[in-house]
Amino acid sequence: MVTKKEFTEKILTEYPRMEKTDKFKFACHPGVSCFNQCCNDVNIFLTPYDIIRVKNRLGITSGEFLEKYTLLPIEENLKHPIIMLRMDEETKNCPFVGKEGCTVYEDRPWSCRMFPVGVASPKEVENNDDKEFFFLLKEDVCKGFDGGNEWTVEEWMKNQGVDEYVELGDMFKDVSLHEYFTGTKGVEPVKLEMFYMACYDLDKFRTFVFGSTFLKRFKVDAERIEKIKKDDTELLKFGFDFIRFSLFGEKTLQLCDEYSQQTR
Ligand code: SF4
Ligand code: SF4
């Protein structure tokens, strides 16, 4: 399997770079001869918000979702855990593909919405500070490029409902591409576990916040407490603040007086 780093390096060197206003022609519909083939044997990286959308659609906890439907690839160059959809061992199909297409379509992951457009973050590769860019993934199997409407990258993203994913996606990028991870220093396992829980295993993170001394140690206002109790997206934003505080040393959360004196 190609590693995430190798894939990013290939894109950086071989793929034409596109802006939001650049155009391409594409059409995908149930009548195409390749229908559903892109949902087989494919690497789909999941963002924290993807996990919220799909696990809530399935009515299961984040822990159940991660265990049943995902893989945690181990690669030498990875600075923090990444999550991939687990394909069926025999058929190599995505667990959510059905005869009529995607069975979680309204909540399908960000990268499924974006396809055939990809986004490259050069920062994922050490010593590369180029800015993010778009590119087209022209897979041989995909007949979508044989005709269809003309789209700008921006129009395509709007049409596919990507806008709903932007705010939390950008917040995740700011955290996951932070110099704390992109630097050369190794990160302690306990901190990686914290990152995994606060980003991906949100139901466990909620139990941690409400079932431990957490709220005695941190000053969190009553309105925010009510929000994070019920709303996964609010809890994820809180999780990002927690990572920024505990890993990057930023003042995104405030300790109660008694605890802040102990840490001085
Ligand atoms: S989530 Fe849906 S669109 Fe994405 S690969 Fe699976 S079946 Fe295809
Ligand atoms: S392979 Fe391309 S055209 Fe065929 S179903 Fe997938 S995205 Fe659509």
Annotation keywords:
alpha+beta, binds iron/sulfur cluster, single chain, 12% strand, 13 helices, 264 residues, 11 strands, three-stranded antiparallel sheet, two-stranded antiparallel sheet, 2 domains, 44% helix
What would your notes on this structure say?
The structure is a single chain. The protein has two domains: 4-164, no CATH class; 188-263, no CATH class. It has 13 helices and eleven strands. It has helices at residues 4-14, 48-58, 62-69, 110-114, 153-159, 163-176, 179-182, 189-199, 202-211, 214-217, 222-230, 232-246, 257-263, and strands spanning 23-26, 45-46, 70-71, 83-85, 97-98, 101-102, 117-120, 133-136, 149-152, 218-219, 254-255. The strands form five sheets. A three-stranded antiparallel beta sheet has the order 2-4-3. A two-stranded antiparallel sheet has the order 1-9. Strands 5-6 form a two-stranded antiparallel sheet. A hairpin with a 2-residue loop joins strand 5 (97-98) and strand 6. Helix 6 packs parallel to helix 12 (232-246). It starts with a helix and ends with a helix. The model has no long low-confidence stretch (mean pLDDT 92). One iron/sulfur cluster binds at residues 39, 42, 44, 94, 96-97, 102, 104, 108-109, 112.
Classify the helix fraction into a percent range. Answer: 40-55%
Question: Average pLDDT, to the nearest integer?
Answer: 92
Strand order of the largest sheet: 2-4-3
Weakly predicted, low-confidence segments: none
Shape: globular
- Total number of helices: 13
SS elements, strand count: 11
